[in-house]
Specification:
Strand content of chain B: 15-25%
CATH architecture of chain A: Alpha-Beta Barrel
Helix content of chain B: 40-55%
Strand order of the largest sheet of chain B: 2-3-1-6
Protein name (chain A): Ribonuclease P
Largest sheet of chain A: 7 strands, parallel
Distance between the termini of chain A: 29 Å
Order of helices and strands of chain A: EHEHEHEHEHEHHEHHHH
Distance between the termini of chain B: 30 Å
Strand order of the largest sheet of chain A: 1-2-3-4-5-6-7
InterPro entries (chain A): Pol/histidinol_Pase-like (IPR016195), RNase_P_p30 (IPR002738)
Number of domains of chain A: 1
CATH class of chain B: Alpha Beta
CATH superfamily of chain B: Ribonuclease P, Pop5 subunit
Keywords (chain A): tRNA processing
Radius of gyration of chain A: 20 Å
Largest sheet of chain B: 4 strands, antiparallel
Helix content of chain A: 25-40%
CATH topology of chain A: TIM Barrel
Number of strands of chain A: 7
Family (chain A): Belongs to the eukaryotic/archaeal RNase P protein component 3 family.
Oligomer: heterodimer
CATH architecture of chain B: 2-Layer Sandwich
GO cellular component, one term (chain A): nucleolar ribonuclease P complex
Number of helices of chain A: 11
Number of domains of chain B: 1
Number of helices of chain B: 5
Order of helices and strands of chain B: EHEEHEEEHHH
CATH class of chain A: Alpha Beta
Radius of gyration of chain B: 16 Å
CATH superfamily of chain A: Metal-dependent hydrolases
Chain lengths: 264, 156
């Protein structure tokens, strides 16, 4: 896993994107992408279905299945394609749902969007996740404070900045830049990952452009380069570690057929 | 005396509305205006004022859709950071893709020539007759639309 060539990563591409044209992402200079599945918080609490005796209620998984990638596409392009889920939540009660979910284990990367201060505290403090992302459409109703930010960094959690809403409209742009500068003020922009969050190919930008967008986010060119390369790589490795639990080594079998062809 | 430093930004204009085979015609002035408007939108009056001296745009080649932007060193960061936010030039939906940022025109041209060659190689395989190939080569390596032809001679 660690010897994979991850290269430049775009760790959030919407799953609505047309997979047929996935080569164009490769042309932009990326080596790794993650397809995002967004899980919204149900509004106003779920109505509890009445229990009837003798009837086993089918359990519905809170997290949907990841989108499947057609094999031809996966083989034809050189991109590493990961699966990522983004979960919106406002209270810590969600942990129960996540523990029960079987589908959650199918994803490579887990990101959350906390909506309240207590949710943010929980996400930074004790939740088992890889990435924290903040909403872009409206102002965040709480302040990111230094203590929580430091705590999250120590646990190896990354903070995400998405740029494609910023390309689309002006208010989102203001919000994103505000959050980015806030991260700088609070913790010198440590552990930042810049992703696209694009829903169409026109909103994706090349590596050069992402670095210059990083300039608007208060990062210098070196830091923005790190945010799409080495930070993303550590995030992927950390996520892999989380999935395996307390393991220190993963052993993979090399394809035996390959060696035989060499001997002939 | 400190030298007056410039930066030359090479951009590729991509548009899904125009198919790859056809040349994309565009007026240099419209491109120039959209860029300045975007700088105004993102960096405000200060940004435009800082960028304006020595600011020059040239749309070089219709086939490979390459444009060069010259800007003063320093404020060129305002330009490069507003380039990603351009989604429309005139009525055309576009995406600008920064290819290269160089310090001299010579450097930028060497880069562009390499880029054009790579483009040619990929297109040649699709064409059948030699005549078509020659025509394409002439069209792709053509810089006559811009007044930078002298620069090519300087390089070789």
């Amino acid at each position: 896993m660690s010897c994979h060539n991850w290269g430049f990563c775009d760790l959030c591409v919407s799953n609505k994107i047309d997979l047929e044209k996935i080569e164009s992402i490769e042309k932009l200079g990326y080596n790794t992408i993650a397809l995002n599945t967004y899980v919204e918080e149900p509004l106003g609490g779920e109505p509890k279905p009445k229990k009837k005796k003798g009837e086993t209620r089918e359990k519905k998984d809170y997290i949907p299945d990841p989108v499947d990638i057609p094999k031809e596409i996966a083989q034809s392009c050189k991109l590493n394609i990961l699966q990522r889920v983004t979960i919106e939540f406002s209270e810590s009660g969600i942990a129960h749902k996540l523990n029960q979910s079987e589908n959650l284990k199918k994803y490579d990367i887990i990101a959350v969007v906390p909506k309240t201060l207590s949710a943010f505290q929980y996400a930074c403090g004790s939740m088992d996740i890889d990435m924290i992302s903040l909403e872009t459409n409206c102002r965040i109703p709480f302040k990111v404070n230094r203590k929580l930010y430091r705590q999250a960094i120590e646990r190896g959690i990354f903070f995400e900045l998405t740029y494609s809403p910023a390309i689309r409209d002006s208010t989102a742009r203001k919000n994103i830049i505000t959050t980015a500068h806030n991260y700088y003020a609070v913790g010198k922009s440590k552990n930042i990952v810049i992703t696209s969050g694009a829903e169409s190919y026109m909103h994706l930008r090349g590596v050069h452009d992402v670095i210059s967008i990083g300039f608007l986010f208060g990062l210098n060119s070196n830091e923005s380069m790190e945010s799409i390369r080495s930070n993303a790589r550590t995030l992927i490795l950390k996520a892999e570690g989380r999935r395996h639990g307390k393991h220190h080594m993963v052993i993979q079998t090399v394809d035996v057929n390959k060696d035989q062809t060499f001997k002939d | 005396m400190v030298r007056f430093k410039n930066r030359y930004i090479t951009v590729e204009i991509e548009s899904p509305m125009v198919p790859d085979k056809k040349p994309l015609s565009l007026k240099s002035s419209i491109f120039h205006d959209t860029l300045l408007n975007k700088v105004q939108q993102i960096h405000g009056d200060f940004g435009v004022a800082a960028v304006k001296s020595g600011f020059l745009t040239k749309y070089c080649n219709e086939n490979t859709r390459i444009a060069i932007i010259r800007s003063r060193h320093g404020p060129h960061k305002f330009v490069t950071s507003s380039i990603p936010f351009i989604t429309k030039i005139g009525k055309l939906d576009v995406r600008l893709n920064t290819l290269h940022v160089g310090a001299t025109l010579k450097n930028s041209f060497q880069f562009i020539q390499k880029h054009q060659r790579a483009y040619l190689d990929s297109m040649w395989s699709k064409l059948k007759t030699d005549e078509e190939r020659k025509n394409l080569e002439a069209a792709v390596m053509d810089f006559t639309k811009t007044d930078v032809k002298i620069n090519i001679e300087n390089i070789s």
